[in-house]
Amino acid sequence: MGTELAVEDRLIALLGKTLGPDAVLSPATNLVGDLGLESIQVIEYLCEVEDHFDLAIDEATLADVQTIGDLAAVIRKLGKD
Amino acid sequence: MKATIRNSQLPLRNADFDTLVEALEYAAEGEAGYNFYDGRGELFAVLSYRELRVEAMALARRLRGLGCKRGARVAIVAETEPMFHRFFFACQYAGYIPVALPAGFQLGARKAYVEQLERMLDSCGADLAVAPESHVGFLRQAVERLNLVKAGTPDEFDALPEADCVLEPLRADETAYLQYTSGSTRFPRGVEISQHCVMTNLRDIAVHGLKITREDRMVAWLPLYHDMGLVGFVLLPLGSQLSADYLSPRTFAMRPRLWLKVISQNRGTISSSPPFGYALCAKRLRLTDQDRYDLSSWRVACVGAERIHPEPLRQFAHVLAPAKFDPRAFVACYGMAECALAISFADLGAGISAIKVDKETMATTGRVEPLPEGADERAEDTLTFVDCGEILPSFQMAIRDDEGRDLPDYQCGRICLKGPSVMSGYFQNPTATAEVLSKDGWLDTGDIGYRVGTHVVVTARRKDVIIVNGRNIWPHDLEYVAESLPGVRFGNVSAFSFADDSGADQVVMVVESRETNPAKMRSLIDELKSLINTHFGITCHIDLVPPRTLPRTSSGKLSRSKAKQDFLARAEAPQGASALGAHG
Question: Strands (DSSP E) along B95-195, which ranges?
């Protein structure tokens, strides 16, 4: 359980760097809809995420990611493989 | 693994072939080819022209075994991988027409992407479709309701038996490919380009535009389903027997510095990008990185595909001066899929030539009065354009007014072109074709500009199209998505863009609504913004207005240009700042 929370927290911390301290983020935050990120900012964020967790996420997987929680689930799965 | 080299013996032939297959047969006599770099900038695949020829012929026989008729369409989801090149050229040998489809990348956009693929597959009447493993899931969903002969991964096609047949490659008078760069995602239009058309354009580009020599090497991160990627960096290097190095568009977006790394290490000489690519790269460069690269080999850095603003380019050249980037390498160019790729190139080695003109004269008379250099004009009284250079020799150009009359030099009008590099038409779409292509062969590009002799200056691209980060977004696609929301009525939405003070396109959607409760208005705006963002990956300003505010023509059609004028007037009025501010 402890590690599960950690992934979400780390994703939120990374995103906070892009959005600034005022952003209110939770695992339910929709990365595209709620935050109004441009696609190029989304890519920059994913780049940081990939570097931070040292893994690569393919397009097919990302097409089903909506929320921070979804992204955390993907990262946990890739981490286990 | 080693990247392909420059040809050591084979004499250069600058695209003087009748067909793409003839060009490949000749290139296969040398050592050059295509090289693919992964997300970390490491070489992961090499495909020499020699190997491509052998593999494409074998694959052509496998495709022929499926029994499709000559001219059948083969859709290829165009990820930047060797499979794209293999299938594209297998079609050339088999007598089939390749159609590159976008290899989409948008977070949470499965549904939108699958629908887009389905509409394109349907519109081109594809018989076969192939996607790399990473995208085949989307493709399988997209073909569920269509009746294709076969859709699958490259491996599934490679497992087919080779038909015992004589290959009859596509002839000069046959179609070379269909291109879906043009038009909206909802009503996709496939630009049909013949072998003769694309070969003429390649020859023009190689000989007159870029003056290609055997010493050249091309580097690209552009999507291969885009005309600049497909024609400029798959077909052009082949036509002139050059080696080409690729990064995927996604790799570039994530790590733009890898572009510089590949150019630097492979001594690339030709590499192009829409303006946003240069801006992104400059923005993401670390200060300590600048002298890690040697960009002195980069002699042609084409800039095209959207309106060019000089400032971001100056910035790019400035931060990369320590890496020996020469600002004179910038070459402004103008082109479109309807003309295969290129229409004009600025002079090589001259850099960007910015022209300042008087704003008021241009707005009121359409006449351009270039201001002398160093003229003491206030910035807000002037507009800056970039000379896109001399039109390629195979084109005739006319600048016309709305009644179709030819206009003189320095007078803005619609840019019209005629010549062998103009498309055959939009595939199986005579109505859309007739809208832009006259019976006597003149293409109305929809772009606005003026001429100075044989030089063209583009002042506005495609009356209505919105361009964000090099992507074309059509207003009616935005409006359609908005109209799907409860509380928004069909025909009560108008989308357009305007250039802000920095020259960047801002997207605006004016929406009529009966809602007067501020909290409900706020939530409708948020919903609309979120919806547009999910579908198009852009931020859109939403301007809610009362019913019957949007201007209509006498026939009841919405007027986008008038809606834009009204919006800008509201935004400039003191109390109307909310149009841009609070409403976001």
Answer: 97-101, 126-130, 150-152, 175-179, 191-194
